[in-house]
Amino acid sequence: MVETIDDISLVEYIDSGCFAQTYLSRKRGSNVLYATKKIDLKYVAEEPFLMRYIKNEIIILNEIKHPNIVKLYDVKIRKEYIYLIMEYCNGGSLLNALNKYMEINQKPFTEDIVQYLMKQILSGVECLHRHNIIHRDLKLDNILLNYNSVHEANISNILFSQVKIIDFDISVRSRTFNNINLEEEFIYDDNNIYDEKNDIMALGVLCYQTLYNR
């Protein structure tokens, strides 16, 4: 039986994390697709810090609107679950795209593909930093690709894809950058101090992995 939340039906399982499952979802009476993150409040009750992670993602995605950052459309709260209705990306993760490309071509992405991807990733991260938000978990799994059509997704022509950065649960908000002021205002309460250098280092790793698959 297909689970339904108001006018949204969870039609196909996509992936799961430590406290949430993600489903391909469809709006009733239409072909509009979403990715719905279903969060089990039973696990949140056992680990109260998880609610801070959930609030992080909701706060940030409600604030940041950028073509290279995944959209949050709605939040639905029920007795046992919280549902985050998000933009669906039909190209999967950058990690899966790299593995598929390796299988077909026996080599990592070409320089022009990496440049194409990194330009979009950098644009999204620059937007976050302008809003004093540090992602803290930039990696191949947290970069999704979206295509304008199912055909483009099936042929996996990376140069026709649009990058979407996801997973903001452990992100932090910084009052100032560049160590001008060590006083920090965090979305996620953490004893450590982070700045934009954390994301910049992760971007370097991403670039290296996509070029050399290491």
Q: How is this structure best described in words?
A:
By secondary structure, this protein is an alpha+beta fold. It contains 6 helices and 10 strands, in the order ββββααββααββαββα. It has helices at residues 41-46, 49-63, 94-105, 111-130, 150-155, 196-212, and strands at 3-5, 8-16, 20-27, 33-40, 72-77, 81-87, 133-134, 143-146, 162-165, 172-173. Strands 1-2-3-4-6-5 form a 6-stranded antiparallel β-sheet. Strand 3 (20-27) and strand 4 (33-40) form a beta hairpin. It is globular, with a radius of gyration of 18 Å. The termini are far apart. 28% of the residues are buried.
Q: How would you summarize the topology of this molecule?
A:
Blueprint lengths: L2 E3 L2 E9 L3 E8 L5 E8 H6 L2 H15 L8 E6 L3 E7 L6 H12 L5 H20 L2 E2 L8 E4 L3 H6 L6 E4 L6 E2 L22 H17 L2
Antiparallel strand pairs: 1-2, 2-3, 3-4, 4-6, 5-6, 7-10, 8-9
Strand content: 15-25%
Mean pLDDT equals 88
Which percent bin holds the helix content? 25-40%
End-to-end separation in angstroms reads: 42 Å
Radius of gyration: 18 Å
Please state the overall shape, judged from the principal axes of the Cα atoms: globular
Q: Name the helix and strand elements from N-terminus to C-terminus, one letter apiece.
A: EEEEHHEEHHEEHEEH
* Class from secondary-structure proportions: alpha+beta
